[in-house]
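During the no-cost extension, the postdoctoral fellow (Dr. R.K.) reprocessed legacy sequence entries with the updated structure-token encoder. One reprocessed record is reproduced below for audit purposes.
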Amino acid sequence: MNKIGNFREGNEDRLPVPVYGNSPTYQMALKQLESVAECAGVDAGIINRLAIPKRAIVVSIPIRMDDGSLQVFSGYRVQHSLTSGPSKGGLRYHPSVDLGEVAALSMWMSWKCGIMNLPFGGGKGGIACDPELLSLGEKERLTRRFTEEILCVIGPRMDVMAPDLGTDEQTMAWIMDTYSMKVGYACPEIVTGKPVEIGGCLGRREATGRGVTFCILEALKELAIAPQDSTAIVQGFGNVGSVTCLELVKKGMRVVGVGDRHGSLYNPQGIDVVALQQHIAGGKPLVSFPGGKPIDNSELLTMPCTVLVPAALERVITAKNATELKCKILAEAANGPTTPEADPILLAKNIFIIPDILCNAGGVTVSYFEWVQDIQQFLWSEEQVNQKLQELMLKAYARVRETAREKKITMRMAALTLGVQKVAREKIHRGLYP
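Re-encoded structure tokens follow.
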């Protein structure tokens, strides 16, 4: 079978390098896909189709800043697959955003939707900016102009965006309004993760963190560890990280470490996450919270705990720091937080990994619920949403665990195999046009 290493150096006789091919994050996604191809025996032609996103668009976004100056930002939207349905994935605002990163994230979204049996393909978008340096008005103008620039490739049956790193419900509301003004009627199903008042879903904001918690509790059960005897460290205290902290505390766990881009805190006796959330909501930095000792961000990942939850950026656990991890469970709430080079090290340390495309799938699952409700114009209660989310997350977890046991492979390889095989089967059934 042809390898998809054809995008790497030293393979001049293979396919040319796509514009996003040199991104380390995209290379990481390709390496995972290649490993699945070797393990699961997926048709080489299908693998080559899955290796390159179906569509990618790069746009310039000129906006007027509050001081009257003009600044131009770069925006990206990648649709990895439209085979299963509209592409689905978040929109992130972060300085490190580039086309390769977005392409990799869109690929992982395809596998995630496949694992959860959702009628979506993977998509992802981003704007290279620092949202903390932008005023509310500047963010609104940036969002609306980006939406205008990509109108030709989005739609309720084509591409549906959601919040991600650096974006939120308000961002989605601006996108919905901009799109609705263009089509001439309210179209809430164009985005998910928007405010409940304009068609959002109850429980959507907390969905990713709740899904992470469901997976952690299943892993603890398998390892015969009581939540009350467990500790957690969460890297990233944004929407996903903060909700995960709150949900874990409700289950009796102690959160002993948290961190964000500005610094980290550690307290072996436990951090009051409710008070910390109030502290940050008041405009104060996480590291100034008096309920923990400030430590370096790199040190946070290597502090002792039962469960380590990377909930920020990709590629934070590498071959360099994997040997220093002191956790029993690694719950990947972020996308792609562990490099392929780190995986065998973690396996040798007998660390139980809950892979990202399973662990953080709660967000896209409830996004699906929101999309369905908007199309049907029939809203569900938060209790219904949470109950269905738990049901689907536990079923997906069980499928991945069963596959890992049957095939004697890692949880990551089992999750990737299920996701890739689902999309591959759909492509085989639909055929190649023409």
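Confidence is low (pLDDT under 50) at residues 5-16. The first strand starts at residue 55 and ends at 64. The remaining legacy entries will be reprocessed before the final report is submitted.
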